[in-house]
User: What shape does this take?
Amino acid sequence: MSEQHTEEFRSGFVCFVGRPNTGKSTLTNALVGSKIAITSSRPQTTRHTIRGIVHRDHAQLILVDTPGLHRPRTLLGQRLNDLVQDTYSEVDAIGFCIPADEKIGPGDRFILEQVRANAPRTPVVGLVTKIDKVSKQRLMEQLVAVSNLLGGDAEVVPVSAASGEQVEVVVDVFASVLPPGPAFYPDGELTDEPEDTMMAELIREAALEGVHD
Assistant: This one.
């Protein structure tokens, strides 16, 4: 590794936020290149943070996957929200996930308020997810809407975790806002979750998808 490369290498912690079921876990898996976060069509699938590690020549991103933030109606909901808010203050950048096929609503504005209150100096990148589900016209409208929501000169990136479109752009945009620094984890390590925890999560995913009553 050349001296110039070392100076340019960037690393840090990135947290994805958004309403439940906005594609945060699917995007985590796409960026890491392996299934480390469970996904389900049911909201509230993710119950604790999972650190996915994205290795590139110029950067290392440690992805902290959080439960979807929402107005809590139960004690569990409040605990999950507290977990998310604790995460905000400990990361170097935040990715705000908003699906291309859903209009921005009060839930999104509530999340942005929480982000601004808990991490006022942390860079926020808008991620318009599920772009494979909409027309180009609808996508353009959503990009403008998310840009207006975030305001200022916030970056907004359209991405499809399902098709892989723009995934590398997401990596590059986050790398550009992370501080220069060494890699935290060795090459080849994809998560710091213990193996038994990963197995339990995969079993829970199968149950969530397969059990309906």
In short: The first helix runs from residue 3 to 8. The CA atoms of residues 55 and 186 lie 9 Å apart. Confidence is low (pLDDT under 50) at residues 1-6, 43-48. The longest strand covers residues 10-17.
